[in-house]
Amino acid sequence: MRPGELKSGGAGAASSWGRLREDFIRWVTRRHRADGRRAVIGRDRVYILPTRQGYMLLAILMVMLLGAINYSNNMAFLLTFLVVGIGHNAMWYTHRNLLGLEVTALPVAPVFAGTASLLTLRLEDRSARPREAIHLSAAGGTPSRPAFLEPGGSTEIAVALEPRPRGVYRLPRQRLSTRYPLGLLEAWTWLTLDHEILVYPAPIPLDTLALTGDEYDGEQAENAGRSDATPDEIREYRPGDAPNRIAWKAVARSGQLFVRDNGSGSGAPVWLDWDGVPAADPEARLSALCHRLLEANAEGQPYGLRLPGARIGPDTGPDHLARCLRALALFGLPGHAAG
Amino acid sequence: MTAPSTAAPTRPQALPGLWLLLVAVPVAALPHAWEQPPWVIAVLVAALLWRLVIHAGHARLPSRWVLVPLVLAGGALTFSHFGTFTGQQAGTALLLVMVALKLLEIRSERDVVVTLFLAYFIVVTTYFFNQSILIAAYSLFSAWLITAALIQVHGGRPLPFRRLARSSALMLVHALPIMLILFLVFPRIPGPIWGSPGEDTVAQTGLSDRLEPGDIAQLLENEATAMRVRFDGPVPPSSLQYWRAQVMTDFDGRGWQADRDRPEIPAPETDAGDVAYTVTLEPTRARYLPVLDFPASLPPQARLLDNLQLVQRNRVDSRIQYTASARLDAPPALPLADEERARALALPENAAARSRVQAGLWRAMHGDDERAIVTAALELFAGEPFRYTLRPPRLQDDRTDHFLFETQAGYCEHYASAFAVLMRAAGIPARVVIGYQGGQWMDTGNYLRLRQADAHAWTEVWLEDAGWLRVDPTAAIAPERIETGLGGLFGDDADAPAFLRRSGLPWTVQWRMRLSDWQELATFRWESLVLAFDPERQRELFARFGLDATDWRSILIALVVSFGGLGLAAGLIAVARRPGDDRDTAQRALDRVSRRFRRHGLEREPHETVTGYAARLSAVRPDLADPLADLARAYTRLRYAELSPVERSDCEARLLRALREVRPGVAWAAQKKRRGSAPASAPAPR
């Protein structure tokens, strides 16, 4: 698998029919502006077509009508036309079930390669009707469970996208659909809500990668040694300190927040170096760096990241971790200066 | 948060809507319990029970090796019972059996849906056997259940029953206007496309085309409605209400045969004094249409024969409605051809010997005075101990002689037949007419109801000076039969059927009769409004709007106009129901600005204050800084300051003035493309 690039992901149009379909959808959705973060489903973008069940009922209605005509049976006419009326109105019900929804794309939580990212949309409704059984699908995603909204309520609906190689992607085009209430018709809309999907390299420990190299082992031992050798000091909590470093005993004594500080914050940080990973494959290097990064973060020691053409200074905390991981995710991709 | 998950293979008992299906199918099939052979119902009940056991988790779905033989057996059983798969009875039985077996095969949502669609079909087949208003109400209930089940299938989660019930009921209500329009406008084709409907249904009671003393007696016990009549204007007296159905000229010594192949005659001229009426006729399986004596104007589909009998081209296999008028007292003067006269005088060689002697006596006594002979015969009936009874003794040997001289007890057809024979024996052309007479006036609905029990037979004799003259010998025996109907005759007779009696009935029976009167009224309304709608009524309806029901353009116009009107009405209701705009002036102005700049990606974020938004816009559009500041200030004042009415309106005016100026403008859009150059106008000093 090649690392992903910044593209509309997932539209794996294998057959020519699939390509044709994809072109058609693109042509149709061109009428809409790109949706950005939020879209309101207006009349101009709700499409509706009969389903297979709809055609089935149509066939049965035809037989019913023939019977009514043949036997000049007025009540058979009445019931046939009643069901015709129900089927006709189903168009309106189904269309209405989707119309006027306000859809917001929620940020996609970054994942490590090999795990599925979760595309999550927030559905809001200002109407006085409940909304039933709304489905979300996206190219390369498993179909969602149906979503429901009480009048004026809101809910979230999500699909798991297929796992991808590391990189950054755009959200694939979303399809919000419903067949409620009778399943005779499907109303749907295509949404081009956008957020980036960030896929970090998969964290793989070096030994799993079967690496050799004294230099690396030494560095690791050195780091580990320093971490153990320096006795903990207690200092006051500063925003950004990892929760697992809180010195609970001290907190219990004083009622104030204290953290254990092994001095590494002020001491020499750990440097995670591209060149320090003895692996030929760049993806393997990134995976190893990613694993080490997570380890360092868990230990709470400050760390920095050095990549060809980029350097992220040593620091701690979730923001720093995110920056480093992002740099790994984007490393070497066209159009992205790492870091 | 909705967790994504791949759909696990659903256990059959966990299918949404299945439990409602297991209620809806038996409900839809219930009316068939009275019409179908018991084994069909047994198959359905057995399959349902089996499915319920599966549903409860005590058994598994039968495999294909069980199902295929069951389906074949079901088909074979149906075929061996009916000898066919087509036709209303066999087709319905097959449908029920197959749906029953389908119940055992439901594995997926799709199966549930198909079965529910077939349940609609089951409801329709009910009408092949029964079209009463009760069935109509019941099938509305069935359709409601089926629709609720369909909603549950597609609801995606177990919906509360109240919501299902409400949604389903609303759907039915919304569908009613469409149903009505299609019912009225959909082109109706007369007659069947294939087969002959009703061949395999139970024979309907009605007048037969042969009259032998004893036939009508079965009808006299029959409470069923034969026809209903509504008069346009005053109701003629009961003694003149003779509903002519069939005329019988040929006598074979035992009974009378209805005329066949009589030539058609033109309809008489209409006259202002005619009695106009509309008949709703129950199916008779015959071609005659009962009309009030004597027919004047005729329904368009009918032909008048020279015996003044009205027929239509096809058998009356379903309930029909027609309008006609009558001239009560004046039979049209028609000549009598020699050959007709011979027919109307014919008596079999050795029939009615004693009657011939009696007739000869009268002839000798009165000579050519035929009226006197008629009177003499009527006096015979009135004078001798003749009785009117519904249970006469059996007639033997020569029926006419035996009746006239031995038993002397009978009812209308005995008298009519014997009288006609006497007249023929005396050389006066005579024939028998059968139809209906009397009936029950329904005050609640203002119409006359004629039951099969009101069937009647009378005679017509030909007199040179008067033509065919109606003579009803029954009137000589039992005048109350003619003047007040059967009820007058048997009202106090404890042996008579309850519906003919007037006194001595327990209150329960009286209540039942009152109830059945109401039911009768509802049925009448239902039948005359709904069931009687046929190509003819449709033609009249279209003609009222100047359209032609047989012209596709007219149908198109009717469809477009009616559906257009319906759509318009629905649109107006939707607009009226739309929640009102509850924003105030300030909010509306702000929203409008936001909408104007949305195109340029400068929509107001939900969290943004007015001032913040105005500042952000001003940064991009320094030229609009002034009006934007005004707008923000006015907005804030309107919102938060305590203002007198004068100040408020002043403030609103400033707000609107500022709003007029805050526009992205075409010029700016063009200029935006040349981004990089300085803004066109510097912010003006304040």
Tags for this entry?
heterodimer; A: 339 residues; alpha+beta; Immunoglobulin-like; 2 domains; 5-stranded antiparallel sheet; 4-stranded antiparallel sheet; 8 helices; 17 strands; 34% helix; elongated; disordered N terminus; B: 686 residues; 7-stranded antiparallel sheet; disordered C terminus
Give the structural class of chain A: alpha+beta
Number of strands of chain B: 16
Helix content of chain B: 40-55%
Tell me the strand percentage band of chain A.
15-25%
Q: Number of folding domains of chain B? A: 4
Oligomer state of the chains in this structure: heterodimer
Describe the global form of chain B. elongated
**What is the CA–CA distance across the termini of chain B?**
52 Å
Helical content of chain A stands at: 25-40%
Quantity of strands of chain A, as a count: 17
CATH homologous superfamily annotation of the largest domain in chain A: Immunoglobulins
Principal-axes geometry of chain A comes out as: elongated
Secondary-structure arrangement, i.e. CATH architecture of the largest domain in chain A: Sandwich
Instruction: Give the class of chain B from helix and strand content and strand pairing.
Output: alpha+beta
Low-confidence parts of chain B: 1-10, 197-204, 676-686
Secondary structure blueprint with pairings:
The complex is a heterodimer of chains A (339) and B (686).
Chain A: H1 16-29, E1 38-40, E2 47-50, H2 52-70, H3 74-98, E3 102-105, E4 111-112, E5 118-124, E6 131-138, E7 147-149, E8 154-160, E9 167-170, E10 174-178, E11 185-191, E12 196-200, H4 206-209, H5 214-229, E13 233-236, H6 248-254, E14 258-261, E15 270-273, H7 282-299, E16 303-307, E17 310-315, H8 318-330
Parallel strand pairs in A: 4-12, 15-16
Antiparallel strand pairs in A: 1-3, 2-11, 3-5, 5-8, 6-7, 6-10, 9-12, 10-11, 13-14, 16-17
Helix pairs in contact in A: 2-3, 7-8
Chain B: H1 18-29, H2 38-55, H3 64-82, H4 88-103, H5 109-126, H6 133-155, H7 161-185, E1 210-211, H8 215-220, E2 225-232, E3 242-251, E4 256-258, E5 275-281, E6 291-292, E7 302-304, E8 310-312, E9 320-326, H9 338-345, H10 353-366, H11 370-383, E10 387-388, H12 399-407, E11 409-410, H13 412-425, E12 430-437, E13 440-442, E14 447-451, E15 455-463, E16 467-471, H14 473-477, H15 479-490, H16 507-531, H17 535-544, H18 552-577, H19 585-598, H20 610-620, H21 625-640, H22 645-661, H23 666-673
Parallel strand pairs in B: 10-11
Antiparallel strand pairs in B: 1-4, 2-5, 2-14, 3-4, 3-6, 3-12, 5-9, 7-8, 12-15, 13-14, 15-16
